[in-house]
Amino acid sequence: MAEIIQKDGTWTFDGDALRLTPGRDKNVGLLRRTLGELVVPLQALAGISLEQGKKSGRLKLRLRDGADPLLHATGGRLTEPHDPYQLIVDSDRYGVAEYFTEEVRTALLLDQIPSGPVTEYLLPGPSVPLSVSAGDGTVGFDGERIRLEWNWKTEDAKAAAGTRTLAVADLTGVEWQPAVGLENGHLRFSVRHSPTKAPAKYDPNSVELWGFKKDPLMALVAAAVQARLPHPATPADDRPREPEAALPSPTAPAPAEDDHDALLRRLRELGELHRSGVLTDEEFTLAKQAILKRM
Fold first, then answer.
1. pLDDT tens digits, one per residue of 11-55
2. How confident is the model at residue 143 (pLDDT cuts 50, 70, 90)?
3. Distances (CA, A) of 259 to 152, 168, 230, 256
4. Distance CA 84, CA 240 (A)
5. High-pLDDT (> 70) share of the chain, %
6. Which of 23, 93, 169, 293 would staple 9 via disulfide (CB 3.0–4.6 Å)?
7. pLDDT for 253 beyond 60
């Protein structure tokens, strides 16, 4: 067994898996502390490296593509304090870190673990139920349904739609994007047959993030949802399909377009017309009030 203990955390390797336990140091990110201990099977690893600096260095794990739903949902955008696959190492512990690195590399070689992508998730993702409040909303996830609730900072047209519930079966993807510089981030759920290019501020299937402390916790929701979606390597033909809608009977009226989504689209269109100067303040206010009454 190989083990390295640092203020940043403790990594242990027993030959079959790595156990990553976050430390209690104030510099450990909120996401790592909330995620807790991770057990990474050797089969999920593509490699390990040690980067040495004058005062401290870093142990880094490289996972195989598609092995971890957290990495897939965040697209490699987790910063150092929150990345569970990095460990800060004091310079006087480089010897231990080198030994740890060699033990893992030797096991990868002996077990002939390939470094290429995998066809199924090898880590389970965060446990549910989950509930996180950040940005302009609160997201709850019970393993089957996502509940989006808005707060007083939510844009009016988006908040007017009220609490939103999405079934995992209706999703085609999920993405977490952190705020960078002046650009806000988001947690976005892609809903089948409802594509949108609207900014997260106006998208009822997204939470807008502004770079505050709890933003990274939304990545846990993204990972938990991603773990329950078809693996990205799953062929399109093998993915679940929606049942074909039954044809309406001759005497029954054809189903109309979903009023809720249509009204939201209309609100976004009005907002764009107002911002571009086509509608005056008074015209925009009257039109928006008429639509909100229909909701």
1. 999 999 999 999 988 889 999 999 999 999 999 999 999 999 999
2. very high
3. 25, 22, 29, 8
4. 32
5. 84
6. 23
7. no
* The pLDDT of residue 55: 92
Q: Which residues pair with 90 in a beta bridge?
A: 56
Rg of the chain (C-alpha set): 23
Q: How confident is the model at residue 240 (pLDDT cuts 50, 70, 90)?
A: low
Region 214-220: mean pLDDT is: 96
The answer to whether the beta carbons of residues 271 and 203 sit under 8 Å apart is no
Mean predicted confidence (pLDDT) in 151-179: 94
In whole angstroms, give the CA distance from residue 67 to residue 121: 5
Given a cut of 70, whether residue 197 has pLDDT beyond it is yes
pLDDT given for residue 294 in this prediction: 62
DSSP string of the chain, one letter each residue: -EEEEETTEEEEE-SSEEEEEE---TTS-HHHHHH--EEEEGGGEEEEEEE--SSEEEEEEEEPTTS-HHHHHHTT---TTT-TTEEEEEGGGHHHHHHHHHHHHHHHHHTT---S--SS-SS--S-S-EEEEETTEEEEE-SSEEEEEE-TTS-HHHHHT--EEEEGGGEEEEEEE--BTTB-EEEEEEETT------TTT-TTEEEE-S-TTGGGHHHHHHHHHTTSPPTTS-GGGS--PPPPPPPPTTSPPPPP-HHHHHHHHHHHHHHHHHTTSS-HHHHHHHHHHHHHH-
Residue with tokens 């007017």: 160
Contacts 24+ apart (CB under 8 A), 3-9: 3/100, 4/59, 4/87, 4/89, 4/93, 4/96, 4/97, 4/100, 6/87, 6/88, 6/89, 6/90, 6/93, 7/88, 7/90, 8/87, 8/88, 8/89, 9/87
